[in-house]
């Protein structure tokens, strides 16, 4: 029974981590809107693969090196910011192409690069690095996890209502299963919505460009602030 509870807790926690708006979901939504469910799923698998890499590194203790090397973290943040701005530019180009005669079909026909984009961005995303430095490492060690406290907006109100033991294989399996549910279900919802609203694809691409550009500028500012503080 405890194994089932840990499994379900992992699913809830995986969904809570994957669902909030951010650069990964922006890429998934853009790929699904332009190229269909499979392309959106593939992009999601790119982000999930990065989490799997971080999981292995956390298990081996390598992830903790980032915490002890602030300059490395700043470099990762800066690289992530540059990549996000680059992908934002690509998303904006997709919007412009959709308004040219036949432009939309050319965008759809292009080879999907969602897996590589999401994978590289996830590896340089400081939020995911921070997660695996703190909560992710905690998932591997015997202890407890307040699952619902990590939910966006309502987490503070639900703190203490669903606490499970960590260090369980069932919890880890459930965690990645929750991520899997999201990366399969989210692009499916985008595709269904796009079929109902034909102009949705360029709107999603525009929103994706805005989200990626916003995070890119913020990450570059964060990296620049570290460099300024270190040299001042």
Automatic annotation (TrEMBL):
One of its GO terms (cellular component) is plasma membrane. It is a multi-pass membrane protein. The chain crosses the membrane at residues 34-60, 72-92, 118-140, 147-165, 171-193, 200-221. It is found in: Cell membrane. It comes from the Archaea. Keywords: Cell membrane, Membrane, Transmembrane, Transmembrane helix. GO terms for biological process: amino acid transport. InterPro entries: LeuE-type (IPR001123). Pfam families: LysE (PF01810). This is Threonine/homoserine/homoserine lactone efflux protein.
